[in-house]
Amino acid sequence: MLLTAVLGPLALGCLFKLPFAEGTDSGDPPTSQGDADSATEGTGDSDDAKDSEDPGDSAGPGDSEDPGDSEDETCEAWTDSDGDGHGAGTAVEVDCDAIPEGLVTNDDDCDDSDGAVNPGATEVCNGIDDDCSGAVDSADVCPCPLEHYGGHAYLFCNTSATWYQAQSTCEALDNYLLVVLDDASEQSWVTTKAAAQGGSAFWWLGYHNLNATPGQEPAGGYEWVDGSSAGYENWRSGEPDDEGDDGDEDCAHLDTAHGGWSDLHCSWADFDGESMSYVCESTVP
């Protein structure tokens, strides 16, 4: 006879305890809400974890810290020694929102020692690059044709004038005098440029012996209008001769037809039917 028939179903269960799911004492299903909650522990926690890691709660691109908020922005600045708003020299790093006095954020000043010279200035005929364009003076603002040589500006004024008038006209322009010839190269260049102007062959130079003593005449006592003594000379043969009854040929002029110099009366504006023209030269740099 079967055991179940003798002992009964309950007794059989007691004799042979069968294994059930871990964490339960029997294979019976949960009989209460508390048991259900206990049985599902862990799966409910996953929902909690999901809530805590909701993507909507994570920091988005707009919530990230702005790098600019953590550190001041820096700029390059240059010294503005003359206070004209334009700098020069060596750049330094500064806080863009607090640029120290005396510094500016540009380095386009071509002369930081002169407040009248900067890219915003107006160019005038004064032997200086006022507007920092890279060119000394301009034909638009100078009274005579403009040429450049050796870092200096030259004005070829092909108009009739006495030596005194020529010197006065040149001096009326800031930083200009009647031309001073330093050597044969400059002499050759000036002769070529003067001849190219056409018109007169005679051009006043800034060379004279107005202060010479009678004993120094005819060739002594010459000096340039800038105060320098005689150095380079290029007199034509027989010159200077202080020719004339009054012995008053005290100013030198260039004869482009022959390339040499002659002395002449300083008060003459014409000679041999031709006008006496003149060359002005800048004294800077």
Class from secondary-structure proportions: alpha+beta
Mean pLDDT over the full residue set: 81
Query: So, CATH architecture of the domain at 146-282?
Result: Roll
Main sheet properties: 9 strands, mixed
Gap between N and C termini? 136 Å
Highest CATH level, the class of the domain at 146-282:
Alpha Beta
CATH superfamily of the domain at 146-282: Mannose-Binding Protein A, subunit A
Fraction in beta strands: 15-25%
Query: Helix share of residues?
Result: 10-25%
Number of strands: 12
Write down the CATH topology of the domain at 146-282.
Mannose-Binding Protein A, Chain A
Summary keywords:
single chain, 285 residues, alpha+beta, Mannose-Binding Protein A, Chain A, nine-stranded mixed beta sheet, three-stranded antiparallel beta sheet, 20% helix, elongated, disordered N terminus
Description:
By secondary structure, the protein is α+β, with helices and mostly antiparallel strands. Among the domains are: 72-121, no CATH class; 146-282, Mannose-Binding Protein A, subunit A (Mannose-Binding Protein A, Chain A), CATH 3.10.100.10. Helices cover 20% and strands 22% of the residues. The strands form two sheets. Strands 4, 5, 6, 7, 8, 9, 10, 11 and 12 form a nine-stranded mixed β-sheet that branches. β4 and β5 (152-157) form a beta hairpin. The termini are far apart. The relative contact order is 0.11. Mean pLDDT is 81; it is low at 1-27 and 34-44.
List the helices and strands and how they pair.
Blueprint: H1 3-15, H2 33-39, H3 43-52, H4 67-70, E1 74-79, E2 88-95, E3 103-104, E4 146-149, E5 152-157, H5 163-172, E6 176-178, H6 184-196, E7 202-208, E8 223-224, E9 249-255, E10 260-265, E11 270-271, E12 274-282
Parallel strand pairs: 7-12
Antiparallel strand pairs: 1-2, 1-3, 4-5, 5-12, 6-12, 7-8, 7-9, 9-10, 11-12
